[in-house]
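Worked Example 4.2. Read the sequence first, then its structure tokens.
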Amino acid sequence: MRGLGASAIVFQQIGKGDITVMAEDKTGEFKKPLDKMTVKELKEVALAIPEITGVHGMNKSDLLSAIKVAKNIKEEVKKKGSGTVREVKRQIKALKIKRNKATGEKNSKMATIYRRKISRLKKKSRKVA
């Protein structure tokens, strides 16, 4: 993979309000969004910006935030997940009742399906919290 060399940060509008920050190499060819770049590529971009020091000791999240601060790019806060913890726990309780009913009726296939859904919802509740 070829390095970016003297690269620039470019905004590309995808939809009505969505703006993606792209890295552009010296030929003017668009590479990929900053969030999708590897640490090695981000270090090359950061080295080209004189305001950023200590590039080699930074990890990916530090590099992204430093580049965005240097280029006055607003960081968008991502939503952790949809719904609240209470909603998810309510769904888990309902599924546990269905699972217990399926287990009592000796329907192992449905009990397994409900168990897997409960497991997914538990993971979702951890992300929401």
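Now turn to a second chain, presented in exactly the same format:
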Amino acid sequence: MSRRRAYAVAISVLCLPACASQAARSLRRASRDLSGVVARGDTAGVRKAAVPGLQARVDAQGLVEPSKRRTWARTLARPVEVRPEALLLLPVAGTMKAEETDEGWRLAEDPSLLYDQRTPRQALRAFVLATRMQRWEIVVGLAPLRYRAGLSAPDVQRAWTQGEHAQVLREARDRVEQGLRRPLYEDADQAQLTISENHRVYLEREGDRWVIADFLPRDAVGK
């Protein structure tokens, strides 16, 4: 499938109004259900309402604290607006964000910006694409400044194609690509993608762009 055809198919699927309204109803219902959980003071239920990677970090006790419980329950029961978000997997372009609008689902990212680094997810997508397309100069630019100094595109090419650990690098890259479907947690300066208990990807902000500090699993050879 050509890239142009892939984009056309993606946009036509996103615009299906039935899918959009169903997702909105489901999300609104989930918010109401969570409201009831908070009202009951059920901390375990609050954590269960989050994705697995976030459950341990949710301040469930704070949500059900007697002085705040009623406010949170009322807030969750009546969301001002419901706009589901989704990730769309496109050939070549990889994972793209989509958002529901009043006219249906729409792309929330420009698919043509293949090597953008304005967000952590874009940086990871750029990394996957650049290593597959052998754009080694882009791979160099995705490394933090402390690693970039003295690193050249030919150095990176040798490591990925002829180096002793080339297979390890490619296998880790493949797992990162699959992991792009997972939630990615970030604050102002750092981000993390958890692929498994033994494999976490760490990113850092450099000015207005994100770079990849570590993408290898903990037991990787030579790490």
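Notes for the reader: The chain has a mean pLDDT of 84. The chain is about 50% helix and 20% strand.
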